[in-house]
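Hello,

Our lab assistant flagged a job as stuck in the queue for most of the afternoon. It eventually completed. Since we weren't sure the result was trustworthy after the delay, we are filing this so someone can double-check. Below is the sequence as submitted and the structure that was eventually returned. Let us know if re-running is recommended.
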Amino acid sequence: MTTTSTAEAVTREAAPVAFDNSYARLPQPFFARVDPTPVAAPALLAFNRPLAEELGLDADRLEADGAAVFSGSRLLPGAEPLAMAYAGHQFGQFVPLLGDGRAILLGEVVDRKGRRRDIQLKGPGKTPYSRRGDGRAALGPVLREYIVSEAMHALGIPATRALAAVTTGEPVYRDRVLPGAVVTRVAASHIRVGTFQFFAARGDTDNLRILADYVIGRHFPEIGQAENRYLALLDAVAARQAALIARWLGVGFIHGVMNTDNMAVSGETIDFGPCAFMDGYDPRTVFSSIDAGGRYAYGNQPAIGQWNIARLAETLLPLIHETPGEAVDRANDAVDRFMERFQAEWKRVIAAKLGLDRIGTEEEQDLVRALLTLMYEQKADFTLAFRRLGDAAAGEQDDGAFARLFADPTAVSPWLARWRTRLAQDARGPAGVASAMRAVNPAFIPRNHRVEEALAAAVEEGDLSLFHALSRVLARPYDDRPDFARYAEPPRPGEEVLQTFCGT
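-- returned structure --
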């Protein structure tokens, strides 16, 4: 792979980031070194000061002079920009070479808690992996990633973070001319299942082993001394993904494009392209305009997670055991455990949402199934139903707000009676249960119509007020905030967002 450089066009000067770039020290097949392409007139739109301080950066200096840095026009000392190589299954079809076509990793920092974090620009220009793309990003997708990734973090779900968003002062050309922008993304790492597939597809076992050892050291040091550390790695990645997807389902999140190149081995949610949140409960819900067959529908996400883990297992076979048959048997055991792990995690998530200390008995499992069936048949809003159920836990006088979310409010009365019978076994009492439920059932999510409203105002009118207001609301998703009630409401007829787009 050839590399490109525009170093002569980029100004390097001192700035307050202490880089320590371990990935850049890996062998050259892992990446291509490439500098961002400077832009005409960068302007800072959003800066995540709390995150900057968490990373140990000089927030004052970056906020004052961050446009050039976060656009890629100015490289900080210690940065070693590179585009990562990876492959991936896209909608089930394997592509042996993908790579960062519109993202450049500036480097890594060790944050105030001792955690290693990537700092990456998304939309900073062409890389050797851009193929026919321009390497740029439009303003709408940049703001969507900023909003949703930060909302996921506030919801307590592992996700990449947004450090900054800038406009470039240059247009990008998609189906129409749009303002260009760059988002600065922070992640535990950007290593994907597809990174392993890149080396496996080439039969490059030496670099595959280097990658696996690097991932173990960076993300799973506790398994470094395991008897079979590569099998343990597969098991550990599977466990994190099972827990992550269960938490997605708990807030009605639909990733939209769960390709293997979009599954981070760290267990973080990554790549917020056509993602969206369900309004009315329906496990078949799809928003992504490119998911015509519903492969990545809300209810399919656990099975797709297991499918992706099976693809990771295939790459690790030569490391797991020298005998192919033995390697397959051991890997299959780990893949099979994925769904068991997911079910255990999902029971924990849904039990908390219902105010229960566990979901174990058949009666308790039927209680879950019955509620979800009612929500589907009665077209109840997923987020509000659980939030109002938390209010109802405080006393029967609050049942009405919950029941009115259903097309026929009387239809939920038998279920409520069963639920209250089960709650009576809880030693926390009504107030304690209600408080616990409010802590896990958000009042606010990034409602699709509100996200689109904010993006349209920013792109079409240059008005960022709705973006900033929505960001403030989503930073405290579990707090009742009557002044922002409009952000908690589902869309009215005509406001529904039925499709989202990847933004590439």
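-- support follow-up --
The delay was a queue issue, not a problem with the job. The result is valid. The chain has three domains: 7-190, 195-347, 354-504. The longest helix spans residues 324-353.
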